Amino acid sequence: MLILAFDSTAVTASCAVADIDKNSDGYISVNRFSLFSVKNKLTHSENLMPMAVEVIAKFGCTIKDIDRIAVTVGPGSFTGVRIGVSTVKGLAMPENIPCVAVSTLEALAANITTPIDAVICPLMDARRNQFYNALFDGNGKRLCEDRVITAEALIEELSKTEKSVILCGDGAVLYKSLSGSLNNNTVIASPATMYQNALSVAVCGYSGKAISAEAIQPLYLRPSQAEREANEAKTSKGSDLK
To answer: Residue 39: inside a domain, yes or no?
Structure first.
C-alpha cells in the first residue's frame, strides 16, 4: 500500500511517501520510503506543499498512485493542525483518495522502540504548565487516551510506576526539567526519535481506519487561545455587572 503522510502539528513539519505492507508473520514492513522533515523558521503553510511535491517526486510516483493519505489531526498547534488537515483535503478530494486521521501522540510513540516493560510517554507543550499527553507500552498499546494534563498531575502519576519511562515530543525536555529528581526513572528519547516523523504517521495510517477526505476533522483537546481569552473576557464582564 502506498501512503502519503503529513505531520504539521508542532514546530517540526514532516511529509513522507511509504510503501507499506504486512509479511506472513503479520509484521508491518516499510519496503521503500521518501521522507522530508524540517524544523526551521518557515511556516507550515510555506513548507508543507513543496515538501509533498518533493517526497512524491523523489519516491518516483504521482498523486494518482497514492492509495491513502494519513495525517495527524491533533493534539497540537491549532494553526498547524488546520494547515495539515486542509492540505490533505485539498490533495485527496480531487482524486477521491481515502484518508486516515492519526493521533499526533500515537505517531510520536511509534518513533520509539523499547522493551515491553517500559512506558512511552509522548509530550507536547500545551502552555500554561500543561501537556498534551498519552501513555503507551513497549508494544505501542495505549495505556490511556489523549489528554491535557498538568505537569504536577503527570509527575505524580509517573512517579508511581517502577518501569522506565521514555519521554518524546517537544515537551520532553521541559517535563524533565520540571520533574527533576522526582522522576529518576525517566529518560529523554534521542533527538533523532524525539520529534514528529511522517514515516511513523504512515505506519499508523496503514493500520488505521480509512475515511473520506470530507470526514477528516481536527482534534482539539481544549479551546484555542482566542476562544479562552474570549470566554475569560465574558466571565470578567459578567462579574463586573454584578
So the answer is: yes
The x, y and z cell numbers of residue 2, run together, are: 502506498
Spatial distance between the Cα atoms of 134 and 124, rounded to a whole number of angstroms: 10
- Entry pTM: 0.90
Of 12, 13, 60, whose CA–CA distance to 34 is shortest? 60
Could you tell me which of 93, 89, 49 has the C-alpha nearest to residue 73? 89
Range of the domain at 60: 2-103+196-224
Q: Which residue has the cell 514492513?
A: 29
Same domain, 72 and 181: no
Rounded to 5 degrees, what are φ and ψ at 125?
-70, 115
Helix (H) or strand (E) holding 130: strand 130-133
Residue 30 lies in a domain: yes
Helix, strand, coil percentages for the chain (3-state, nearest 5): 40, 30, 30
Residue 138 lies in a domain: yes
Mean pLDDT, range 108-121, rounded to an integer: 91
Do the Cβ atoms of 10 and 80 come closer than 8 Å? yes
